[in-house]
Amino acid sequence: MASLRKEPGRNGFRISFYGLDKRKRSIWLGGFSKRQADTVKGHIEHLLAAKAAGVAADVHTAHWLGSIGSEIRSKLLKADLIEPTADDRGPVILGPFLEQYILNRRDVKDSTPATYRKTITALVDYFGADRRLDSITAGDAELWRIEQAANGNQRDSQRKEMEDNSVRRRTGLARQFFRHAVKRKLIAENPFDGLAAAVRGNVKRQYFVPVETVYDALEHETCPQLRAVIALSRFGGLRTPSETLELTWQDVDLTSRRLTVHAPKTEHFEDGGIRFCPIFDELYPYLLELQDIARPGIDCPMSSPVITRWRSSAQNVRTPFLNLLRRAGIKAWPKLYHNMRATRQTELLAQFPAKDVCDWLGNSQAVAMKHYAMPTDDSFQRAICGSTCGSISANQKPSGATTRNEKPPKTSGFEGSGQVVTPCPVGPAGLEPATNEL
């Protein structure tokens, strides 16, 4: 309960009360009549009760709050009786808000702020750093997205247009920033809500990487570590560089042919981003070669990384691979490592149950179908020839028969042949890679 008293020699009343933290507080109402002060006291008592119960104020008190002046409102704020609104805080400016957002996100990986920064730069360049957050409308957000699609590409000097998925990712981040502003009640609504932000599978950039192409490239490379990186991506289906560089020797069990993979991308999931993947026949010799060189447990601890190159964030594994393809006279394909991982998943889905394959490669079946699995000429030809009981091979060789530079034997069929399989157009109904479950 609150108490009301008239102070001698002063024109007004003082309302005293205890907050939820048991601290005594008071509000001075200068120039108020007894009737006016009693009305304020009643609303304060209701606000205290509502706050203790964790419910909103009733309609009468809410209406009263909307009608009071800034002086009384500031006293209620100071007494912790009401929550501040955007008007109470004053206008929020775009540039400082986004910079503060990055500083506050101490829960993300070290590389994430750099990703945020690209979208922040695009927002500030378009709207201006001193633009009020609450002045950006849904129409403004839509025009910003159109501008990103038309002129947002800063990486390729040959074209200004940005890929649709890049626009979607950037829009999603902008929506994330403004959603935070809504949660903090800095703005009433998110102007980026309703804009397309979900990343879609990009068929134009899919490429089935034939196993023969990979073996040809590896013949031109002498560095065992780069050879292993390529093999882990193409034959193990690991995300590169994140999962490949996380591997330590205690994760590699060549005896049991079992690989423990740590996925930074999914470490916030219930399983901690840890999964187990078979060491396939094609991958085995490249890991064995590295083990013979490193001698883990003898010359280096088992906790040592399998790949000791490219440990700095300033280095990357893409450039050496591009140089290798150039030396081998092989034209580079889009999304070098992603398409090798996708190729491996496509092969495995044709031979093993989808649930097992997705567990091995660390993605869901929905994601696998949307972003990884590719239609193949082999499946199409078998379908139109009436052969619907088989499946394309994962290009695996006989156990223990693979040497470092050995190519798959030439046969008349797909299995073990290294046959080049490329994405192809399909009929109107579409054609997904066959699985043993279907």
What order do the helices and strands come in, and which of them pair?
Elements: E1 3-6, E2 12-18, E3 24-30, H1 34-53, H2 59-67, H3 70-78, H4 86-89, H5 94-104, H6 112-127, H7 138-151, H8 164-183, H9 211-218, H10 224-234, H11 242-246, E4 252-253, E5 258-262, E6 274-278, H12 284-294, H13 318-328, H14 336-349, H15 354-361, H16 365-372, H17 377-384
Antiparallel strand pairs: 1-2, 2-3, 4-5, 5-6
CATH homologous superfamily assignment of the largest domain: Intergrase catalytic core
* CATH-scheme architecture of the largest domain: Orthogonal Bundle
Task: Please state the overall shape, judged from the principal axes of the Cα atoms.
Answer: elongated
The CATH topology of the largest domain is what? hpI Integrase, Chain A
Relative helix content? 40-55%
Helix count, per DSSP? 17
- Integer count of domains: 3
Helix and strand element order = EEEHHHHHHHHHHHEEEHHHHHH
Number-wise, the strands total 6
Q: How do the strands line up in the largest sheet?
A: 1-2-3
* Rg value: 31 Å
Largest sheet: 3 strands, antiparallel
The level-1 CATH class of the largest domain = Mainly Alpha
Head-to-tail CA distance between termini: 70 Å
Structural class: mainly alpha
Give average pLDDT, whole number. Answer: 85
pLDDT under 50 segments (min length 5)? 396-406, 408-438
What share of residues are in beta strands? 5-15%
